[in-house]
Amino acid sequence: MPVPLRPAVSALPAYVAGRPAPERGDLVTYKLSSNENPFAPLPEVLDAVAEASRAMNRYPDIANTRVAEALAARLGVTPDRLALGTGSVGVLYHLLQAVCGPDDEVVHAWRSFEAYPISVLLTGARWVGVPLGPGAEHDLDAMLAAVGPRTRAVLLCSPNNPTGPALRHDEVLRFVDAVPDDVLVVVDEAYVEFVTDPAAVRGLEVAEGRDNVVVLRTFSKAYGLAGFRVGYCVAEPRLAQAVRSVALPFGVSLPAQAAVLASLEQEDALLARVAELVERRDALVAGLRERGLDVPDAQGNFVWLPAGPGTTAVAETFADAGLVVRPYVSGQPGDGVRITVGETEANARVLEVAARLGRAGTELSEPPPTV
């Protein structure tokens, strides 16, 4: 008889990672499926990683002391409010493990970050997905109505991955103040450095003075450290300590800690790259709209193309042109394609393909013409 698995584990949906770009002899291919930063690491960061790797026979600092101190100074918080982990999603897993259990519920928008249902189900809790509203945005009124006596946490993704819009600061304040004080509200700001909307939520301000609000952030996107998996949360000290207690010991490696410290020292150069990606993003959104495609507001390093039942065909059309994008196919309303802002040449080719897709309206109901 096989070893039985927990029902929660058996029921887990698979996390679908972005596919790599295949090598082709006829053209250069681009991976636009994983929201990665297309710029190569800075030399100063590479040097710090190489130096740290000389001590790979030693365990890393389990408390991430130097990183926490540098990050606390950067954010204007005390180190005891920080907990680090293997990417912001790793920190989310630990956070929900600390507060959720069987028969609890976690409310979040859907479609949103694909790891949310997995992180909830691992605790034995149930996820309550609230459909996005117009413009592919969170419907905060509907989410508030979904909060009930079993709700232990609410997840807010801003900008929303994969659709792009950011939550508005004043609306989030009203939402948080209407949620019971014993319900955790997680403001996931994995793409915060790319946000240019002045009305967008400012997570750290929302968390100030509210012990039930936690902010999630990552070094994967703007700082270009996706391969090292370093994320963190800002929380009140008791919650932060709970996350650190649940976390896998030595989760953030020695080279990863060195990369974060070097990146914070080189932040001006890295944020200049972010500014360039924002310009490319805005140009990509404008170009897609000019070609008749319905693209919602984009505040991350990606754009969203609603495609409905034509989603698979749209993704294949891009793939035929050497562009690997990320299709979201469920057979339900709201399916579409996420396209990461990439190299200048890749973005130009996206617009070339978009010209062949024709005017989409709200969704591409028919398969597009082949490229």
From TrEMBL:
Aminotransferase class I/classII large domain boundaries: 31-351
Key word Transferase present: yes
Gene Ontology BP, a term: L-histidine biosynthetic process
Reactions catalysed according to its record: an aromatic L-alpha-amino acid + 2-oxoglutarate = an aromatic oxo-acid + L-glutamate
MF terms in GO: aromatic-amino-acid transaminase activity; histidinol-phosphate transaminase activity; pyridoxal phosphate binding
Keyword field: Aminotransferase, Pyridoxal phosphate, Transferase
Keyword Transmembrane helix assigned: no
Superkingdom per UniProt: Bacteria
Pfam families in alphabetical order: Aminotran_1_2
Enzyme class: transferase
Cofactor(s) in the UniProt record: pyridoxal 5'-phosphate
InterPro entries per record: Aminotrans_II_pyridoxalP_BS, Aminotransferase_I/II_large, ArAT, HisP_aminotrans, HistidinolP_aminotransfase, PyrdxlP-dep_Trfase, PyrdxlP-dep_Trfase_major, PyrdxlP-dep_Trfase_small
Residues that bear N6-(pyridoxal phosphate)lysine: 221
UniProt-listed Enzyme Commission number(s): 2.6.1.57
CDD domains cross-referenced by the UniProt entry: AAT_like (cd00609)
Stated family: Belongs to the class-II pyridoxal-phosphate-dependent aminotransferase family.
NCBIfam families attached to this UniProt entry: hisC, PRK03321.1
Function description: Aminotransferase that catalyzes the conversion of aromatic amino acids and 2-oxoglutarate into corresponding aromatic oxo acids and L-glutamate.
Subunit and interaction comment: Homodimer.
Protein name: Aromatic amino acid aminotransferase
Naturally occurring in which organism (per UniProt): Microlunatus sagamiharensis
High-level lineage: Bacteria, Bacillati, Actinomycetota, Actinomycetes, Propionibacteriales
